[in-house]
Amino acid sequence: MKPYLIIGGGLAGTTLAWKLYERKIPFLMVDDPQLSRSTRTAAGLFNPLVFKKLNKVWRADELFPSAIAFWKQTGTALGKQLLHEMPLLRVFSSEIEYNDWHRLKHDPAFAGYMDTERHTGEEKTYDKGFGTGWVKHCGYLDTNCFLEASHDFFTAQKSYRKKTFAYSDITQNADNTWTYENTSYSRIVFCEGWKMQQNPWFGKLPLVPAKGEVLTFEKKDGPRVLVNGGCFVLPVAEGKYRLGSTFAWKDLNDEPTEKAKTELLQKVKELLNCEIEVEEHLAGVRPATQDYRPFLGQHPEHKTLIIFNGLGTRGVVQAPWCADALLNFLEENTPLPNDINITRYIN
To answer: Which of 77, 238, 245, 306 sits in a 20 to 30 Å window from 251, CA-based?
Structure first.
């Protein structure tokens, strides 16, 4: 018998697989190609501030140290550079944004994230008349490299299988374990992204999927740092950038749309003061939640069925800390924090 069957090989499932591997706990990850491809589409950005209300990301002081250490350690294990740290230049669009920024930049709670010393000259290049500000501890995770290298690694460990999954493929045993393809598992963890809505045990949780679209383009003499102002422009290689992102709550699928492309092109024209030529256009559906907090925990009746989902737009920083919290709960009986436990919705 194996302790864990993981359904889903995206960011959540693959991060959980690494945490199990670190603890020397056997598992099988089934990566259904029909599940969401949002991790592969996402730019993998991480940024400790929420610009809309100018606040820190939820649990930033815990999440960021955990995430950065994990991605560096995992990159070393894979022999890949997964984590790319770089400062973020925030371009203000109003006097209100400027005033809010300067009101908080000397607040001790924000001091570790707002950089008042950095001066590169790019501040003037992208200033729209209301000033700019620098944010520390930002960058991106190469999500595609993480998934591909991890899946190859776990394939070699005989812990990964790319296979279409159906709920009818699993059967419950008398001792509350589960059988999948003639092997018994103590627990099943569902990491299905927005397709969780079809799950017969967890599908009623209040997921609010949001479609996002991202463009890739090339530009000489573009920004050398991550720039955010109406959209983000992320340098991923010499002269190559990713641009995003949009939000849509209808027509949920992985098909790019001209509407989103037009929206992004207009925003980047305003930000960079130039036209760009699109090389690639991708779309994916984020597994966002009603209260913007992840879904973790046990099914109220079937305690050996587990959910790890709802990472939304900040999965890169949330996944490592949440995976640890989930395994501490399952393996060490450490209570799950109330703000991520699904008992906030079901008992």
So the answer is: 306
210 exposure class (CB count in 10 Å sphere: 0-12, 13-18, 19+): buried
Q: Residue 33: name the closest of 10, 55, 13 by CA.
A: 10
Domains of the chain in sequence order: 2-41+144-207+290-344 (3.50.50.60), 210-286 (3.30.9.10)
Q: DSSP string spanning 68-130?
A: HHHHHHHHHHHTS--EEE--EEEE--SHHHHHHHHHHTT-TTTTTTEESS---SHHHHH--SS
Is there a contact between 199 and 192 (Cβ–Cβ < 8 Å)? yes
DSSP 160: E
DSSP assigned state of 291? T
Strand partners, 30: 7, 161
Distance CA 140, CA 315 (A): 11
Please tell me the pTM assigned to this model: 0.95
Strands 27-31 and 2-7: parallel
pLDDT tens for residues 250-289?
Answer: 989 999 999 999 999 999 999 998 888 899 999 999 999 9
Which phi-psi region, left, alpha or beta, contains residue 85 (left: φ > 0; alpha: ψ -120 to 50)? beta
Of 22, 14, 313, nearest in space to 191 by CA: 14
User: Which pair of tokens denotes residue 259?
Assistant: 């509407």
Whole-number CA gyration radius for the chain: 21
Cα gap 32→7, rounded to integer Å: 8
Q: What is the pLDDT of residues 206-217, one digit of tens each?
A: 999 999 999 999
Are 135 and 10 a contacting pair, CB within 8 Å? no
69-96 pLDDT, tens digit each = 999 999 999 999 999 999 999 999 999 9
Q: How would you classify the pairing of strands 2-7 and 305-309?
A: unpaired
